[in-house]
Amino acid sequence: MVVRIADVDGGVAPAPCWTCRTRRRGTWMVRFFLVPPLLLLSLGCSSGESDDDATSPGPSPTPVPVESPRIEVEPNSLMFGAVEIGDSSDMAVTISNTGTGTLSIEAAISQESVAFALPDAAQVTVPPGDTTSLTVRFMPHEAVGFAATLEISSNDETHPTTSVALAGTGTLTLLDSDQDGWTEDLDCDDSRADVYPGAEEACDDADNDCDGEIDEQVTLTYYPDTDQDGFGDPSHPTSACTPPEGHVQDARDCDDSRADVYPDAEEACDGADNDCDGEIDEDGDTRFYSDTDGDGHGDPAVSVVGCNLPQGYVSSSDDCDDTNPAVHPDATETCNGIDDDCDDGVDEEVTSTFYLDADGDQFGNPAITTEGCEPPPGFVDDSTDCDDGEASVYPGALEVCDEQDNDCDALVDEEVETDYFLDADGDGFGRSSSRTAACSPPTGAYVTESGDCDDLDANAYPGAEELCNGRDDNCDGVADEPSASDAPTWYRDSDDDGFGDASTTAVQCDPPEGYVAPLGDCDDTDPDTYPGAPETCDGSDEDCDGTVDEDPVDPLTSYLDSDGDGFGADSDIQEACDAPDGYVTDNGDCDDGDPEVHPGATEVCNEKDDDCDGDVDGIPECVDTLTESQIVNDYAYLVLDAHAGDTQVALSDTSSFQPGDLVLLVQVQGDPAGQFELAHVETVTAMAVGLTAGLEHDYVAGPYDQFGAFAAQAVRVATYNNLIINGVQITCPAWDGYTGGIIAIRSRYDITFENTATITADAKGFRGPSRETQRASNGRVGEGVLGNSGTRCSTQTTEPDTLTGGCGGIEGTYDSYDGLGGAGGGANALEPPNDAVSYSNRYPAKSGHSYGEGDPGVMIMGGAGGQGDSGSNDWYILAKGGNGGGMIFLWAQSVSGVGFIRANGEAGEASCDYAGYGGDWGASGGGGGAGGSILVSAHVVDGVGLSATGGNGGTVCGHETYHSAAGGMGRIVLDADTISVTTDPDYIQ
Asked: Which of 158, 301, 377, 926 has the fewest CB atoms within 10 Å, i.e. is most exposed?
């Protein structure tokens, strides 16, 4: 879209300028000259073709009256689309002067954004009828969308301001190592193509679909087949992908201990459900008969068929009455009117003998009998009467004193005569030894009661009141027994404390063993508990007064527990048997306002003495474990110079710093680059941090342009007690000209690498020049400690600059493929560069300087590789130079484990990576970035691999066996007592 500005009357005088115009093959070339105070774009003063640039200033043009410049801008928006972080993309707007006067313009990005820049002059003039272009560069530094506005101010009075919308998106390419369509940030295992979100779950002991579960919903259920009959026990299922040994899938076995029991097995009469159909021995053929009366003979009318004899059944069927247990074939026939023996006869061959009972006393005369099943009138079946004429005489009758045998036992008056006893003392009881048997009392003082134990004492006789007098008053053979009417009550004293228990008593004349007369013991099992005993704090009523633990002789000391963690402090003390609510007996709490702090608590990394042992986070067991890849540092750049002795450092952003932080100051670029030191933050304001001590060195800030020359930055050191890095990657943001490119970690004890963990600053250092389209042009210089002017190498040399980065290759020729590769990034040291092979060997490219073994107190990022050249006199891609490696600082007691510490340089890009450019014309790849710097300060460095190597040069398009130059090696400094690691290059100790 073209924005057209209508012509209006009037005009302006053009601004004075010095211009020179050249034309190459019909194309106007634009040259820039710095003319104070403005950088002006000058157009040629002469026509015709020339291969030489004119450099002398020309006269000021004569003002033309009533001339009016008119501005047209095309397009009105630049959409850069997606650009990889660290790369850049250029687009141009065309500015045309359709008026009659000279057009003066000034361009600026209206919104502050490090993503958009104007690489060329922002103030130019355009003659009437002429056109110029203005380049806008998009350089994303993070993976987000960016927007800004290009504001073009001009001397067109009608439209003095024209806006062009700018938009672009930063992208970050993520790896898909297993090529399953899912990148490493979403793939839970980027080494397996069958593992990704939504993949089909398989029985392979892996989380194929990345849902956090393994082999879910794809396992089968198996059951143990102990008896190996092919059917499993359903009560013990097992889920697995393949059947465990001795397991099957069929779970229908009803008895897994018998091989002859399973579904559809042949049923046998063995008391088992052989075919698992829920019935036992259902195929038997023996008939059994009901024996309801339990006489061992069955009812032929009620039967069942089966293998085993059922309860209440018998094998015989010959009972003729199954309701009467006395009736069956083996019974004895009796005179009862029924067929007792089931022989179809009733009372056959059975009679009884009956006897005459003349006196009706139900006992018969054995001398007079008759036979039959039923007794005739006057007859009975008893023949034991001894006098059938006297109804009171019969067996069992009462014997009386009548000189007859009343009970038919052949004895007369036996046991019916009365015993009489002499009673000398007249107490109603006689002596047993004076017995006389008679039907009537003898003459004299006789009584029928005997048992008098003292017939001379009228107070001693059976049943008399027993008294505690040493005599047997009641004639029971015992004197003073417990039943004595005046016997006292004694109380059990089980604990021998002299007081008895009212619940256990004894009433007798004399005290039993273990009994006493005093009463009142409330616990007869404790000799220390009795009325009047001293009270102690034991939860019992020792003095038996009904109150527990009152006025104890041994009170408990307790302490106020304000935070409820079970431990108190000495600020509030109570003396009692029990601790009051909120009090405890342990006074070891070192912070009674924090429930997480007390003796025995787990010490964690929180700058508190959690377990009250006097040590704050001071034990190796206080572990910080990193299980996610992350950036652990915060960064800010110096906005003012800082000098040795200063205690204030002005920073671009202080929001990430706080008192107590450890900060690393580094001079990244400028003089003296590589200088660094550690300092502690004491105060923080909106613009500066205050330090606990003065600086040791000077640091130079700015100027801060888009190339970041003379930059110094402050890095908040990530501080830990005892650090474990478990299988993840710790990295840093790439150097962006202001901050980044540095990792700084301090651990009070150890830094331990587990599961191939990595600390990496690969390609995070000085920036290689981005790829661009140019015509037969030298490559650009890579960034180094003196910044990156973006200039091209102008001489026939490809040596990397010791203070910048690699120098790009020079122009090729029309008739041969002899373009030079970009030089490798310089590592900013003094060792000479090495030759490396370019395509033609005509002008060898140079590899980057190696860092060497200079001052260990200097740490520098790896220099960037230069661009490759285009390879011919035509428009081609100049391949990007590789970034240098960043810097890594580690301080700990030991650094060990399985993992890597890397600050490698980036490889230069191959020129054939860009479709449509290069072809077989010998366009060269970019130079490799140099290795960065690694400093490890510890007593022990063991196990980890360390590398700070330079990146390879990119390949030559069409001749891929040739490479541009590699970056120089970085440096590794190990300040340690014991070293057992592999490094590349060799370390400095």
From this structure: 377
